[in-house]
Design a protein that fits this description.
six-stranded mixed beta sheet; 47% strand; 13 strands; mainly beta; single chain; globular
């Protein structure tokens, strides 16, 4: 099992990849190569078995010691070789969204497009955005909104793909 990024009180924003060995009940930090990536929390990720890669989109990140914000970036982590690549940014900043992989496309839905703070008095910035990223073409597209109930906007959910 791979665990990518996150946040904890002790270390703050984490940019590591950690691996859990189920058989040995041990954890280790995976040494990585390639691009320098910025970890955070509230991102989505999918695993592509064809390329043996994990795609990580968006999230909430610390850009410096006193600058935090939402992200629309996309990273690729190649499991064989533990190498990071920075791919095309979606242009849509969000966190607490969901993603699934369907036939070479990563489908991204919803999320929070605004950092809700105590000063915003509960701003409702829950998204109904539905986007797709083509793994082969490195290209983002915004899809038509699904014809669902008008209150489908949400964040903090999960999603899975089931063919059938």
């Amino acid at each position: 099992m791979l665990v990518l990024f996150g946040h904890c009180p002790l270390y703050g924003y984490i940019s590591w990849v950690q691996e859990y060995d189920i058989a040995k009940n041990t954890w280790r930090v995976v040494p990585t190569d390639g691009a320098l990536v910025q970890g955070g929390y509230g991102h989505s990720s999918v695993y592509d078995p064809a390329s043996r890669s994990v795609y990580v989109h968006g999230g909430y990140k610390a850009y410096s010691a006193n600058k935090y914000g939402l992200a629309g970036d996309l990273y690729k982590f190649q499991v064989d070789g533990s190498k990071w690549t920075i791919l095309r940014d979606s242009g849509f900043f969000r966190y607490l969204h969901s993603a699934v992989l369907v036939g070479g496309a990563m489908l991204v839905f919803g999320g929070n497009t605004h950092n809700d703070t105590s000063m915003s008095h509960g701003a409702k910035c829950f998204s109904t955005d539905f986007m797709t990223y083509d793994l082969g073409c490195d290209e983002w597209k915004v899809l038509s909104r699904p014809d669902l109930h008008h209150d489908v906007n949400r964040f903090g959910h999960s999603a899975v793909f089931s063919d059938g």
